[in-house]
Amino acid sequence: MHNGTRLAAVDLGSNSFRLEIGRYEFGHIQRVEYLKETVRQGNGLDEDRNLTPEAMERGWACLARFGERLAGFPRAQVRAVATQTLREARNREEFLSRGSEMLGYPIDVVSGPEEARLIYQGVARLLPQSDERRLVVDIGGRSTELILGQQFTPHAVASFRVGSVAWSQRYFPQGEFTATAFLAAEIAAKAVLDEALGTFRPDAWEVAYGSSGTAGAVGDILAAAGGTPGTITREGLAWLHERLLRAQTAERLRMDGLKEERRAVIGGGVSVLRAVFDLLEIDQMQVAQGALRQGALYDLLDREQPGTDLRTTTVNGLMQRFGVDAEHAERVARTACALFDQAAPAGSERAARKLDWAARLHEIGCLVSHSDYHRHGAYILDNTDAAGFAVPELHRLGILVQGQRGKVRKIEADLQDPMFALQLLSLRLAVALCHARRDPDTAGLALRQDGARFHLTTRGGWAAAYPQSAHLLREEALAWLKTPWELAVSLA
């Protein structure tokens, strides 16, 4: 990463969409531009958890404006991250498909724990370095993330389905503030957050930080009322609670420091924050400058630095957890990537890295059962929390793992992508060539692509020397029949 390189992060939150553009300078990212739009997608989930057409249109319009600003940015220098609303939305694929097109870049839906990890990175990167044990609290529109960490390392992350938008809709639907509504909202928030006590207990941290919308809004209001800037106290929260009760409705609420866009969700945000203070015995919280979008920027940076991609560490951890035969996984990965590199176009390094991960995880399902282990492996990857990975990335790895054996046409929809087809073929060939669980003889083995046709050739005498491998390769050619692709095998 060269000094002066521009990076961009888009945060698709439940209340607001944000765009942060930064410039890399000597290991740090300096802000160049920041845009924010209140989209309120979290309000647009209907009873069936589908985004309404109006909510989708609001989001698409915002992404189109962000996309115009990002025109010309290389794909590797932009990260778009979606959170709880799109985790919940049943019709999210419809929104993401057009949204990615409008933005001009793919949108990653991240899991709750991955969102928490990125939040912590954003907070930690903008704080002075110290060895203090930190608690970070991020109350978003439909989820609340809690993180314990020191320096740049998060030690515990958790995500809970409670937030300012969801709680405002549920307990203050007409914007009316009553003592009864606040009591019900706080009790309900504590019920959801109660399991956090075991991990995030008061003796596990020294300093509490609040990041993102609710903490920032409350901090601004208290500072405007004469409080210490950047600090939220238990007394200040009690004072704010009393002011909301006196106003009786959000429409009548007039307070210095309260932005108009925050008025409709301030009741839900304050009730959740009060519940967090009570449950975790917080007396004082510092308002953090960093948040999810800064974490996404630094994550982009880490992915580009050799040896620092967290996803590789995560893959190694999954291999250990599920008892994968590391030697064989390395063998299959090495063979698959060698074949892939022969046929892949220039600039396919990212696809090769993902193929390597899929190959190392191809037997992850064996711990469940050796029967249909490829299907078990796909299920595990679709349902695990893996640091550094977005939900679509894990799903794509799962499809590769599922497709390593059996009929190819079962995943025909994904075969429309030429790069995926080459990844899948390379993995399947590697699994076949490594069937004896020893290093295969690949000298003279060549894979090339010509349009929709793959050609696999061997050196003279190879088929006679390895008859079982030759048989498996011929079977592989048959498996690609009735797909958009053809595999031609020439065995000498």
Task: Characterise the protein shown here.
This protein is an alpha/beta fold and 492 residues long. 45% of the residues lie in helices and 17% in strands. The chain contains 18 helices and 14 strands. The radius of gyration is 26 Å and the shape is elongated. The mean pLDDT is 95.
Sum up the structure in keywords.
single chain; 492 residues; alpha/beta; six-stranded mixed beta sheet; five-stranded mixed beta sheet; 18 helices; elongated
Q: Topology of this protein?
A:
Blueprint: E1 6-12, E2 16-25, E3 28-38, H1 53-70, E4 78-82, H2 84-88, H3 92-103, E5 107-109, H4 112-125, E6 134-139, E7 144-150, E8 153-160, H5 164-171, H6 179-193, E9 207-211, H7 212-224, E10 231-233, H8 234-247, H9 266-279, E11 284-287, H10 292-304, H11 310-321, H12 326-343, H13 349-360, H14 373-382, H15 391-402, H16 418-433, E12 446-450, E13 453-457, H17 462-465, H18 467-479, E14 486-490
Parallel strand pairs: 1-4, 4-5, 6-9, 9-11, 13-14
Antiparallel strand pairs: 1-2, 2-3, 6-7, 7-8, 10-11, 12-13
Helix pairs in contact: 1-3, 4-10, 5-9, 6-9, 7-9, 8-9, 12-13, 12-16, 13-15, 13-16, 14-15, 16-18
Distance between the termini: 46 Å
Q: In one word, what is the shape?
A: elongated
Structural class: alpha/beta
How much is the radius of gyration in Å? 26 Å
Question: Could you report the average pLDDT, rounded to the nearest whole number?
Answer: 95
Quick overview:
45% of the residues lie in helices and 17% in strands. It is an alpha/beta fold and 492 residues long. β1 and β2 form a beta hairpin.
